Amino acid sequence: MADLVILFTSIGLSEQKAKETLKNEVLSSALKDAIAQAQGLLGSTDIDKATGTLLYSMVSRLREPRRLAFLTQHIVQRKITTELQVSAALDYVKSHPQDPLDEKAFESACGVGVVITPEEIEDTVEQIIRKHKEQLLSERYRFNMGLLMGEVRAAMKWADGKIVKNEVDMQVLHLLGPKTEADLEKKPKAAKAKAPENETKEEKSSTVNGEVKTEAKSLMEQLRGEALKFHKPGENYKTEGYVVTPNTMNLLKQHLEITGGQVRTRFPPEPNGILHIGHAKAINFNFGFAKANNGICFLRYDDTNPEKEEEKYFTAIREMVEWLGYKPYVITHASDYFQPLYDLAVELIRRGHAYVCHQRGEELKGHNVPSSPWRDRPVAESLVLFERMRKGMFTEGEATLRMKMVMEDGKMDPVAYRIKYTAHHRSGDTWCIYPTYDYTHCLCDSIEHITHSLCTKEFQARRSSYFWLCNALDVYCPVQWEYGRLNLTYTVVSKRKIIKLVETGVVRDWDDPRLFTLTALRRRGFPPEAINNFCARVGVTVSQTTTEPHLLEACVREVLNDTAPRAMAVLEPLRVTITNLPSNAQSDVRVPDFPADESRGSHVVPFSKTIFIEENDFREVMEKGFKRLTPEQPVGLRHAGYVISVQRVIKDASGKVVELEVTCTSSDSAEKPKAFIHWVSQPLQCEVRLYERLFLHKNPEDATEVPGGFLSDINLHSLKVIESALVDRSVSTAKVFDKFQFEREGYFSVDPDSTTEKLVFNRTVMLKEDPGKI
């Protein structure tokens, strides 16, 4: 085992990744074989990290083990050198199972031998920009740049996406020059009636050339009135499948007298975990539907399982509901109704619809479960036994109360009550029997006179039992409506799996910013308005929705662009000394908080003889298309009114550039530079955390996509910590969760780990979507 860990780490895997790989015997065996084959081909035991990474990527996704040697050979011989080629290779062998494999066709499909030079990328971009030049000059930075990217990538399939994007950005900048204030202004929208305050937008989206086009429609418009074809309060009987009894109309009349015809919904989470992005849709749907129709929404904790509930979850759930901007009409608990629920269970037995059963839990699992031998026991006997259950006269699992009904999924006689000798967080030791979801859900809705019981699609199989139980007890019966769950790719949200991520040290806790729990999204800096906008954009659908994170990130950018004030920060600092300024020179530079609307305020930053710029804003050797600072090329300093030119490059003993000596000239008298860069002077040192996706595959829980399990799919580069970044002093008084746009870097939020001595920033999202994330 230890030998294999050493072997796997020798090709670039971390020790943790190597140990996780060993948990999957098939994967570890295949990887061992691939390494042995690679060493044989190389005639050496040394495999560089780039080759090792590709080998691991190939082995972890390969479904055709007999192609292992063939693919390993192509990687070792550097015929396959990128992840894009690995994916193409795997697709090819999967779709061509026959032998022999046509190697020439395979290599053509994988781009083997295709070399795309920077000059070719430059020429292709130039041709495409020339094609759209007239429209670019007319629309400037409002032009759909995704169109350019799409055409270049269509013409050069195997070109590096980041190099293509950089070349497009540079050539567009060269053609149009830096953005003006007019470019930064929002694109004017067609006049329309003002939407009611606090309404979030749903946007019907379509993708054109990689760019999302949207048609605005508010969440309230989706949920208001007839939009969903829901029944009106008191007209439950008009709903398809609703069961009408002789007493239904009388019960509905009493219901209307109690509610006054008001819409009533509820959000009923189990307090055994932290809410995630899927819950955000449920919160918006339940609270939003009530709000859109002048109704009320209850926050009801479904606290019927004392073994799994913790106080911290109750608090966190309420915080997240309120963080999203909703205020419950009242907060209730299923445990508030333990006595009336018990009384109703006794009545259900009296009516002959329930019985005490002694089948064990394992006997009730699976399909075609035989009928209980106690199904027809006398009512009086079940009443006595149920009372004994309550008094603690049976052991756990020795007796249950079951309802005489068959559910839509074929499940027969679901359990209504079970025995648990666990103290309840609210009722203590008062009860040792607890109701199940199938029993509690509809009756709590009935007790609270809920008009619309909104559930996710998986509860559709319980709709008939919902109606049956209310009618069996002759109580008011609400209507259950189902909607599709919201799922995101590249993540897991189950409590069990997140706990595993925490226990194995992959993430720090439930609020690790790489997760998609709501507490994690808040910590990363996602504004609640953006999450609500995202839910609106996804829309209220009956079918299950699976979407990718970039749509959520786009909503975040939209909100932060309007709300996050600008600041300047340098993540990888390079010292710059301005030699033609006196040693005590210092001036104040006023920087607008929102350059598109300077009336919204500004802040002052110092400018002195020593400043710091980003390392990658300087190149010692001039590269074609590079617009920033070189020994031959000056660059402008944003907001400062200066252009700097390199006079001397200072290096350390290893040859690394550690300082530049430059001279500065007023931008009024200097020739206009090709680019302007950000900078800091007399800055604060801070820590910056940069996040990427936690998982490598879209569906880390899918065994066909990730046979080694979700823990084998961790992106080892999902977190980068920069401990000595520099930021301008305008952020010195920032509080936890305050948000900023660091110019040219992205949107950042102050992390709770910050101290009075040192601020910590989380990168929320980049300024633009990463072209590598598709």
From TrEMBL:
<protein>
    <recommendedName>
        <fullName>Glutamine--tRNA ligase</fullName>
        <ecNumber>6.1.1.18</ecNumber>
    </recommendedName>
</protein>
<dbReference type="GO" id="GO:0005524">
    <property type="term" value="F:ATP binding"/>
</dbReference>
<dbReference type="InterPro" id="IPR000924">
    <property type="entry name" value="Glu/Gln-tRNA-synth"/>
</dbReference>
<feature type="domain" description="Glutaminyl-tRNA synthetase class Ib non-specific RNA-binding">
    <location>
        <begin position="164"/>
        <end position="253"/>
    </location>
</feature>
<keyword id="KW-0648">Protein biosynthesis</keyword>
<feature type="domain" description="Glutamyl/glutaminyl-tRNA synthetase class Ib anti-codon binding">
    <location>
        <begin position="564"/>
        <end position="664"/>
    </location>
</feature>
<keyword id="KW-0436">Ligase</keyword>
<dbReference type="InterPro" id="IPR042558">
    <property type="entry name" value="Gln-tRNA-synth_Ib_RNA-bd_N_1"/>
</dbReference>
<keyword id="KW-0030">Aminoacyl-tRNA synthetase</keyword>
<comment type="subunit">
    <text>Monomer. Part of a multisubunit complex that groups tRNA ligases for Arg (RARS1), Asp (DARS1), Gln (QARS1), Ile (IARS1), Leu (LARS1), Lys (KARS1), Met (MARS1) the bifunctional ligase for Glu and Pro (EPRS1) and the auxiliary subunits AIMP1/p43, AIMP2/p38 and EEF1E1/p18. Interacts with RARS1. Part of a complex composed of RARS1, QARS1 and AIMP1.</text>
</comment>
<dbReference type="InterPro" id="IPR004514">
    <property type="entry name" value="Gln-tRNA-synth"/>
</dbReference>
<dbReference type="Pfam" id="PF04557">
    <property type="entry name" value="tRNA_synt_1c_R2"/>
</dbReference>
<feature type="compositionally biased region" description="Basic and acidic residues">
    <location>
        <begin position="183"/>
        <end position="205"/>
    </location>
</feature>
<comment type="similarity">
    <text>Belongs to the class-I aminoacyl-tRNA synthetase family.</text>
</comment>
<comment type="function">
    <text>Glutamine--tRNA ligase. Plays a critical role in brain development.</text>
</comment>
<dbReference type="GO" id="GO:0017101">
    <property type="term" value="C:aminoacyl-tRNA synthetase multienzyme complex"/>
</dbReference>
<dbReference type="Pfam" id="PF20974">
    <property type="entry name" value="tRNA-synt_1c_C2"/>
</dbReference>
<dbReference type="InterPro" id="IPR020056">
    <property type="entry name" value="Rbsml_bL25/Gln-tRNA_synth_N"/>
</dbReference>
<dbReference type="InterPro" id="IPR042559">
    <property type="entry name" value="Gln-tRNA-synth_Ib_RNA-bd_N_2"/>
</dbReference>
<dbReference type="InterPro" id="IPR001412">
    <property type="entry name" value="aa-tRNA-synth_I_CS"/>
</dbReference>
<keyword id="KW-0007">Acetylation</keyword>
<keyword id="KW-0547">Nucleotide-binding</keyword>
<dbReference type="InterPro" id="IPR011035">
    <property type="entry name" value="Ribosomal_bL25/Gln-tRNA_synth"/>
</dbReference>
<keyword id="KW-0963">Cytoplasm</keyword>
<dbReference type="GO" id="GO:0006425">
    <property type="term" value="P:glutaminyl-tRNA aminoacylation"/>
</dbReference>
<dbReference type="InterPro" id="IPR007638">
    <property type="entry name" value="Gln-tRNA-synth_Ib_RNA-bd_2"/>
</dbReference>
<feature type="domain" description="Glutamyl/glutaminyl-tRNA synthetase class Ib catalytic">
    <location>
        <begin position="262"/>
        <end position="561"/>
    </location>
</feature>
<dbReference type="InterPro" id="IPR007639">
    <property type="entry name" value="Gln-tRNA-synth_Ib_RNA-bd_N"/>
</dbReference>
<dbReference type="InterPro" id="IPR014729">
    <property type="entry name" value="Rossmann-like_a/b/a_fold"/>
</dbReference>
<dbReference type="Pfam" id="PF03950">
    <property type="entry name" value="tRNA-synt_1c_C"/>
</dbReference>
<dbReference type="Pfam" id="PF04558">
    <property type="entry name" value="tRNA_synt_1c_R1"/>
</dbReference>
<dbReference type="InterPro" id="IPR049437">
    <property type="entry name" value="tRNA-synt_1c_C2"/>
</dbReference>
<dbReference type="InterPro" id="IPR020059">
    <property type="entry name" value="Glu/Gln-tRNA-synth_Ib_codon-bd"/>
</dbReference>
<feature type="domain" description="Glutaminyl-tRNA synthetase class Ib non-specific RNA-binding">
    <location>
        <begin position="3"/>
        <end position="161"/>
    </location>
</feature>
<feature type="domain" description="tRNA synthetases class I (E and Q) anti-codon binding">
    <location>
        <begin position="676"/>
        <end position="751"/>
    </location>
</feature>
<dbReference type="GO" id="GO:0005829">
    <property type="term" value="C:cytosol"/>
</dbReference>
<dbReference type="InterPro" id="IPR050132">
    <property type="entry name" value="Gln/Glu-tRNA_Ligase"/>
</dbReference>
<dbReference type="Pfam" id="PF00749">
    <property type="entry name" value="tRNA-synt_1c"/>
</dbReference>
<dbReference type="InterPro" id="IPR020058">
    <property type="entry name" value="Glu/Gln-tRNA-synth_Ib_cat-dom"/>
</dbReference>
<feature type="region of interest" description="Disordered">
    <location>
        <begin position="183"/>
        <end position="211"/>
    </location>
</feature>
<dbReference type="GO" id="GO:0004819">
    <property type="term" value="F:glutamine-tRNA ligase activity"/>
</dbReference>
<keyword id="KW-0067">ATP-binding</keyword>
